[in-house]
Task: inverse folding
């Protein structure tokens, strides 16, 4: 093999007419790792996913997947990929089982093999009881699980998941996470986009933070937090007072102060100490919360905006 | 012929698109059966009904019954309707509503395979429906001559042309409301394509315009074949239908590419 990387992208650009959705991103993904793209809506995550799933061609830059060239070896590459698109793309006119079996046919897999795999995957997605139902009648979480199961029908080496849990309730999300851990243990390389920082922290070994078509940071979730944030964050709310006015007063007590419309964030190492100091000088917020720094804080630090608005 | 004209267009994998359609239609057998009854309804209602009111007509110097005159026109219309309904409605659904094609493109298939697969499907359906229509024509005595068997390939070509045009057209539709526009094109095409009465009855300027209608070209071709009246111009008609088919599928593949993998 020419490289240890499953995927290597260098300076990828995607233009739609005049507009550049992706403005030169580079990253390499190792076999077996879970790699995340964290960023708000419109950051260019989906555009990047469509390029690295060998569906849409980069406007410029180089891309190699399994050491193959997506421009000329698209079918071969796609045969080894599993893709979970952002929007469900299930066949509404086919049953749950037929969705799996038919999808496998596109990979030239024999029907007999597909019947067995479909049965396994229905089990995996906890949909065995709904095997013969029309897809239309499934809940959002079930459709998402079916979409993930479908992406596994060809036993892919690399699974690309575009916002796999957006729009799901917490229970359905946790079930999906659990399925993704299982796949990771089985050695499937995963690329996941999300705008949920907890999801990125939970699922990804390494990630890049994307904003406005560029990568603004990359590393392991913990590294990024250590690098770009403090250990703890104190969140203060001040009822009706203007939060803006608090900036000057609070600045000496924190390494950094972020004023958001509904709260003030103090970046500190020991949140409880800070609260005590504030109390001593007579600062009385309507509510105060001490928490550990998260990727959300990293994003805020790097872009000046919150992830989900 | 169509395939050789377009180098490296699609692959054997396009057959899986055919397979997918077959899978869906297997569960919608009512639609399949109704497709076979449709010609009977056409021929019985319009053919037999009007046959008593309208006397025989002269076609190229030969007097033929109105039923024998109108049946090839009905065959052309039914080929058009079948192709348009299938390519426009079903393709639109998967292109813009369920986005199922997007999923297909994440497999080894590419856009050309999808377009070609839909054409295979359209051809298969057309082959079956045209055969059933022609058998009905023969049984009801509406075939002008035994050359009517040549109507079979000609009707399949008609379906192919309209399928390719329909595939291209459906990429421009944005919502179900836009289907009114489809009807707005299809109805005048149906009414003004000399399917019910000879083109010589139209005013001269309209007749010239009608010549551009693929439905007219198909009806005239089928009529000539059914009556066994061969003319050189029939080759022109075939060429016109083939050219539209190639233009349609080429445009469709390009539009699919832009929509599905921009
Ligand atoms: N086919 C397209 N044509 C034009 N603009 C597009 C197209 N697809 C995406 N965009 C634009 O590119 C930007 C990035 O979109 P996307 O990649 O979907 O971001 P994300 O997945 O991070 O939300 C957005 O501003 C979006 O409107
Ligand atoms: Mg997206």
Result:
């Amino acid at each position: 093999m020419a490289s240890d990387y499953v995927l290597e992208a260098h300076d990828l650009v995607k233009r739609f007419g005049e507009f550049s959705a992706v403005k030169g991103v580079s990253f390499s993904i190792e076999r077996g790792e879970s790699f995340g793209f964290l960023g708000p809506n419109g950051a260019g995550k989906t555009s990047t996913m469509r390029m690295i799933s060998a569906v849409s061609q980069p406007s410029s830059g180089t891309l190699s997947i399994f050491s193959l060239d997506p421009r000329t070896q698209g079918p071969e590459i796609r045969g080894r990929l599993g893709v979970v698109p952002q929007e469900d793309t299930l066949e509404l006119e086919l049953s749950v089982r037929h969705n799996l079996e038919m999808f496998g046919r596109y990979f030239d897999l024999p029907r007999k093999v597909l019947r067995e795999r479909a049965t396994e995957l229905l089990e995996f997605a906890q949909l065995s009881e709904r095997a013969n139902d029309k897809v239309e009648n499934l809940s959002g979480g079930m459709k998402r699980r079916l979409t993930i199961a479908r992406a596994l029908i060809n036993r892919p080496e690399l699974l690309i998941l575009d916002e796999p849990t957006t729009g799901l309730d917490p229970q359905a999300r946790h079930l999906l996470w659990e399925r993704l851990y299982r796949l990771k243990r089985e050695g499937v390389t995963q690329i996941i986009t999300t705008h949920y920082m907890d999801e990125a922290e939970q699922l990804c070994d390494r990630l890049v933070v994307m904003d406005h078509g560029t990568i603004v940071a990359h590393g392991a979730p913990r590294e990024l937090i250590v690098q770009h944030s403090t250990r703890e964050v104190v969140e203060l709310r001040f009822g009706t007072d203007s939060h803006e006015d608090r900036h000057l007063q609070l600045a000496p007590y924190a390494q950094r102060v972020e004023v958001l419309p509904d709260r003030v964030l103090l970046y500190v190492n020991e949140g409880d100490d800070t609260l005590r100091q504030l109390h001593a000088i007579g600062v009385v917020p309507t509510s105060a919360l001490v928490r550990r720094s998260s990727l959300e804080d990293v994003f805020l630090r790097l872009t000046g905006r919150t992830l989900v608005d | 012929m169509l395939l050789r004209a377009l180098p490296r267009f699609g692959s054997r994998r396009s057959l899986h698109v055919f397979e997918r359609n077959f899978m869906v239609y297997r569960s919608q057998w009512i639609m399949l059966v109704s497709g076979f009854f449709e010609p009977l309804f056409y021929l019985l209602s319009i053919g037999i009904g009007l046959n008593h009111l309208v006397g025989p007509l002269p076609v190229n110097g030969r007097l033929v019954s109105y039923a024998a005159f109108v049946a090839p026109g009905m065959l052309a219309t039914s080929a058009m309707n079948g192709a348009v309904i299938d390519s426009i409605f079903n393709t639109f659904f998967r292109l813009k509503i369920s986005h199922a094609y997007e999923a297909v493109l994440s497999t080894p298939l590419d856009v050309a395979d999808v377009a070609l697969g839909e054409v295979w499907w359209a051809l298969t359906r057309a082959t079956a429906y045209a055969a059933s229509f022609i058998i009905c024509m023969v049984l009801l005595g509406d075939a002008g001559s035994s050359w009517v068997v040549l109507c079979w390939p000609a009707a399949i070509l008609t379906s192919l042309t309209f399928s390719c045009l329909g595939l291209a057209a459906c990429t421009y539709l944005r919502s179900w409301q836009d289907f009114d526009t489809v009807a707005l094109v299809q109805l005048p095409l149906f009414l003004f394509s000399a399917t019910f009465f000879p083109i010589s009855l139209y005013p001269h300027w309209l007749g010239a315009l009608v010549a551009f209608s693929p439905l007219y070209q198909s009806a005239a071709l089928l009529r000539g074949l059914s009556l066994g009246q061969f003319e050189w111009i029939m080759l022109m008609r075939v060429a016109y239908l083939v050219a539209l088919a190639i233009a349609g599928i080429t445009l469709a593949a390009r539009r699919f590419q832009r929509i599905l993998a921009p």
Summary: Chain A has a mean pLDDT of 92.
